[in-house]
Amino acid sequence: MASTACFIIVSRNDIPIYEAEVGSAAKREDAAQLHQFVLHAALDIVQDLAWTTSAMFLKAIDRFNDLVVSVYVTAEVCMYLIFTCRMACLNWKQLLILLNPLYLPGSRVTSSHFDTKVRALARKYL
Amino acid sequence: MADPANTPLGQMLLDEITPVVMVLGTPLVEEACLKNGINFVQMLSPFCAFNNIDVPVRTASDQPYRLQKFKLRLFYASDIRQPNLEVARERLKQLIIQAGEKDLSELSSDPPPTNYEHNGSESENLPSWFQFFNKELVRSASFSDHEAFDHPVACLLVVSSKDEQPINQFVDLFNNNKLPSLLNDGAMDPKILKHYLLVHDNQDGSTEKSARILTEMRSTFGSDCQLLCINSSEDGLVEHHDDPWALYKSDASPGQNVGCFLNVDDLNEMKDIMQDLSTKHIIPYMEQKIRVLNQQVSATRKGFRNQIKNLWWRKGKDEVADLSNGPMYTFSSIESQIRALGDYAFMLRDYELALSNYRLISTDYKLDKAWKRYAGVQEMTGLTYFMLDQSRKEAEYCMENAFNTYLKIGPSSQQNATRCGLWWVEMLKTRDQFKEAAMVYFRVCGEETLNSAVMLEQAAYCYLLSKPPMLHKYGFHLVLSGERYKKSDQIKHAIRTYKSAISVYKETRWSHIKDHVHFNIGQWYANLGRYDLAASHILEVLACSHQSKATQDIFLRHFLQIVQKTGKTFEVPKLQLPEINISFLKVIFEDHRTYASATAASVKESIWRSLEEDLVPSLSTARTNWLELHSRVLPTKYKESNVCVAGEAVRVDIEFKNPLQIPISVSGVSLICELFGSSDETKSDGNNLAGEFQNDDGSVETTSGEMSNKSSSFSLSKVDFSLEGGETIMVQLTVTPTIEGILQIIGVRWNLSGAVVGFHNFESNPIKKRSSEGRQRANRSGDNLKFVVIKSLPKVEGFIRPLPTSAYAGDVRQLVLELRNHSECAVKNLKMKVSHPRFLNIGSRESLNVEFPACLEKKRSEHNNVRHNPSNMSQPVFLFPEDTIIKGESPLLWPLWFRAAVPGNIFLYITIYYEIEDTSSAMRYRTLCMHYNLQVLPSLDISFQVSPCPSKLQEFLVQMDIINKTSTESFQVHQLSSVGEKWAISLRQPVNTDFPSQCLMAGQSLSCFFMLKDQRRSGTSEDKTSLSQQVGSVVGLGPQGTIESLFDTSSSPLADFHSRERMLEESSHQSDSTVDFILISRPLKSDPDSVLDVDIFSLLGCSIASTSPISWHVDGPRTLYHNFSSSFCEIRLSMTIYNSSNSIASVRINTVDSSGNLSESTSPQSATSSGNQVGWHDVSLVTDIKVTSDVLGTRSIKPPSLDSVSSFVWSAASSTRVQIKPMSMAKIPLQICAFSPGTYDLSNYMLHWNLLLPDGEVNLDEGTRQSAGTCQGYPYYLTVLQST
């Protein structure tokens, strides 16, 4: 499988607050929207599963063709949707954002620092 | 769960898995039938389904049961073969296209809002053609040789009575090669039930011939012969109210009246014949066949022995089987028989029997690796489980197994897989497992895009129907489906699916998804020529800042193309391009307060308010009496709204932002306003409210392009601009009402790229308003943009010229304030207040025309310069003279003096208050606010050091260090003045010696020394006469020529500025102990005439400010000759002590002959006593000392720490005490004896002083000063020489 991944943090009410397209695979024109579609569709499954299990990391809960969706659900009812399961280490980073008193729930994460960190991690694991 | 037979799947199975009757007919039969517009099979089909047949059936078991529903399927023998894939595909495509055409009418309108919360009836949402489509899809897999239920059970041989030799025809029909391959290649038993039917067309004559043929047939073929008479109606006008053929005549031409020659008798006959065929022939035949087969199966396969044998046999056979699709089974093989038994049992609803046989055979097929047959059996097992309504898990497992097996076989079984999948889906749907059903749908879709599009759409609906509805999945699958519809050129279907998906993604913030959906719909609509709809969809994606530049460009270009094709300007409320930052919306209007410039309007409200405090009459004072009040104050209902004046523009600042990376051009930006004339105003409140409602509707009207008659009541400004990618622009729009009334600003409109008109209404948004915040109570958002327009008023415009934008610190300039009033109505009672009086000094009218800086020069004669009036300073408000009136075209000019007091960015705020003479106007007064921003650069950095002169009591040495801090500017130091009568300053050295160039270049520094004399104090001393020679208190520093034209620092602007500075300092310092210097320099520029650099310094007199209130001075001879050979030398000295404190000081003088220890112990104290001017003494010491005797001089310079006894002693008492009154001095005689010639340092004495405070007085004001202390003596050098 081409090493591509899409990483999205979704806050309450299905609002994506952070998006990152990572990976070395040649970018398809419509990759971004396909990834969004797949991850968005996976939210249904997440919403079902999140209440039935105590686990925070839900591995490979949904798939579309070769895109496998894994989710990390946190207490803030925020979740990441990722195409690989090895990026769980991002957890604390997201917590950092949530701890930031200036963070408005639902607003986008625009910190470039966070972005570079995520991409660095992605490079490490992909 | 309900009876499985009543579920959709059950119905489907009861319809589809029924006995097949093969029809073989002669062409003449067809001819007779086609008179009715239908063929023979179609004619009979409606009568093949029996809902209440009530036939007893006895299969393998002895217990009979009754069948209620039964159905036969009639097929021509030519149709009993596997359908051609291409044909089937084409038929499906046609079906879809038809459905698409049907939906087109609904396309233009929005789909009805789907209520996801309660979707009780599932069929409501589902397009109805799905069912037909699925049926067709299932049928495309029929007549496979691996399943027995599609194998004909009976054969219906039909011959017309017109046929020649009908008996031979019957025989020929079955014997020729037209039989389906199923019978020919041995997949099924060719010995099937035959039924002979003679069709007689009543129009061709009587039935006698037919009856004869029938008897002949009966004798030949037995009892299975019947006669069917059709076309009994003579005229062919029979109308069938409930058309029985509606479901079956797919290819009949619509115009023809189907069954027009068939009357009721014909229909009844057909019904009877078919029922007879079913009950008397087919069912008994099937019963019998089941029994026969069952016996055979029992004999060969049932029982332990048979099982073992079978297993053994299979094992042995295993090696032989090498066919890819498993071994070929003929109808006579036991496997085929078991399968047939199962299918027959299934068709006769003996599901238990069917299931047992299916299970039996499935292991065999598996062992034989006959995968297709295995899958088929698994499929049937699953369905049988379902019909038995037991073991759901088993049923699903079987279906899945079958499905997977079919898929595994490859593309040849794709049709079977699809059929199996559809049945599986139905099974899951029946059990409300919609989620799983959707997944199966998803798996069903194969390579074929069109089919998979339909499958995906059905999957989407399954997600919608699942509980809770999975909307995300629903949307996603709709989009997937739409994508495939598009690929197979079914644009209408694509639009339909996408439009349904929009309802899911309506509020989403998943930007890429939204863009994709809207952009595609837009494009497809454009393909269909529905440009208006297309434009409205693409509009949604225009503000796509997250997309790449290329994508943004594509979006915008498409949009503009589509809009062009619509051929009209497109009007869009809330157009997202460019973005309007509504929180930055500012409304600037002028009511009481008017602004001289745009920058003044943006100044914080509180600044103006604080400036206006003293100017504007407060409400209570403004009210002269209550009668007058009523006439002036606006009608109470408008109290909440803002006031603006007719003829004066209301300005709205709007921030436009281009969210894209590509440039966009915006033109014709203007406000949308409404103005109700004052005639409306007189109406009652109720009418006014109605008028407001009209506003909302009217806004559309106003935006529709022309301003009609409204243009007369106000005028709008239009702005064009273009925005680069990501650029933000602040646009100032104005509306100028021309008549009185109520002005409402509704919104803003603009034209994007000349194609789209966007408008944005402000009303719904809370607006931050600059000028009215705080001034009004309880601002409702709706009223923010509502103005009461009042009659035009005089408005004073003012500006200051030529106020520089940047100046060097200390620059003094002459400025003129110009006030104009264009209206004929005069204004009076002008007042003015300046935020920084340090910087701006209001001159007097006389100084308007004086020449600067010459006016400041000292006049020899009585100078008529305006004397500085200190009382002016205390007044914060400047009142213009009473008679000042501004009216018409004559401006009021008033001089101002400007001085850049401190470096930095300075914001100057000036408020001018004026009253309107015309008392009938709605406002009595207005204020003019002016705002200037200027930058003051540092220029000369000047520091002073003042130290008391050790040798003179009332004199101070002043060291002035000037550094030119500018980078380019050169300054010429002109003069230094000390302010006030008290101080006199004189140059210690001629300037020219240390300052030859007379000009201070950039970065250069200069030090000068001055002598400062306290004139007041010295007034008591004896040398009063010498002071009169001082040049006042000014020292010229410039070149010789300019020394004559010294400036008078006591004249108006300079003195005013000085006193401003003094006021600033006063809080922290005692005025008595300070000396103020004014340094005047001129920049060496090409036009130095207008600028003067004045630095005002306020410094403490050192001696006074030091910690000790006691100062003293030793007088005596400096050099004397004495003949030491005769006697020692007695020298008299006198010490003058001055008490500068306010209380009596007691001073004790201790003389110490041995100075060694003393100096060490007192050295820290001496440091404190000399205050902040440390080190000055030493410098002067070094420069002043004159060693006349080498031998002794070296000795005397030696530090006194040497243990030697000094060569002089203080004679007289070693301690003297005096009391000195405040501010007075006392003289004390001193005497020393010297024993040898030499130079003596007479500093080895101490002064102990003690302030005697009056009883009870608390020393408050001089808290920092000590009340007692000790001072080390000053060095005093005395040279005694041996006289000759």
From TrEMBL, chain A:
<dbReference type="Pfam" id="PF04628">
    <property type="entry name" value="Sedlin_N"/>
</dbReference>
<dbReference type="InterPro" id="IPR011012">
    <property type="entry name" value="Longin-like_dom_sf"/>
</dbReference>
<dbReference type="GO" id="GO:0006888">
    <property type="term" value="P:endoplasmic reticulum to Golgi vesicle-mediated transport"/>
</dbReference>
<dbReference type="InterPro" id="IPR006722">
    <property type="entry name" value="Sedlin"/>
</dbReference>
<protein>
    <submittedName>
        <fullName>Trafficking protein particle complex subunit</fullName>
    </submittedName>
</protein>
<dbReference type="GO" id="GO:0005737">
    <property type="term" value="C:cytoplasm"/>
</dbReference>
From TrEMBL, chain B:
<dbReference type="InterPro" id="IPR058541">
    <property type="entry name" value="Ig_TPPC8_1st"/>
</dbReference>
<dbReference type="Pfam" id="PF12739">
    <property type="entry name" value="TRAPPC-Trs85"/>
</dbReference>
<dbReference type="InterPro" id="IPR011990">
    <property type="entry name" value="TPR-like_helical_dom_sf"/>
</dbReference>
<feature type="region of interest" description="Disordered">
    <location>
        <begin position="681"/>
        <end position="712"/>
    </location>
</feature>
<feature type="region of interest" description="Disordered">
    <location>
        <begin position="103"/>
        <end position="122"/>
    </location>
</feature>
<dbReference type="Pfam" id="PF24544">
    <property type="entry name" value="Ig_TPPC8_2nd"/>
</dbReference>
<dbReference type="Pfam" id="PF24542">
    <property type="entry name" value="Ig_TPPC8_C"/>
</dbReference>
<dbReference type="InterPro" id="IPR057651">
    <property type="entry name" value="Ig_TPPC8_C"/>
</dbReference>
<dbReference type="Pfam" id="PF24545">
    <property type="entry name" value="Ig_TPPC8_1st"/>
</dbReference>
<feature type="domain" description="TPPC8 second Ig-like">
    <location>
        <begin position="810"/>
        <end position="928"/>
    </location>
</feature>
<protein>
    <submittedName>
        <fullName>TRAPP II complex, Trs</fullName>
    </submittedName>
</protein>
<feature type="domain" description="TPPC8 first Ig-like">
    <location>
        <begin position="605"/>
        <end position="783"/>
    </location>
</feature>
<dbReference type="InterPro" id="IPR024420">
    <property type="entry name" value="TRAPP_III_complex_Trs85"/>
</dbReference>
<dbReference type="InterPro" id="IPR058538">
    <property type="entry name" value="Ig_TPPC8_2nd"/>
</dbReference>
<dbReference type="GO" id="GO:1990072">
    <property type="term" value="C:TRAPPIII protein complex"/>
</dbReference>
<feature type="domain" description="TPPC8 C-terminal Ig-like">
    <location>
        <begin position="1185"/>
        <end position="1245"/>
    </location>
</feature>
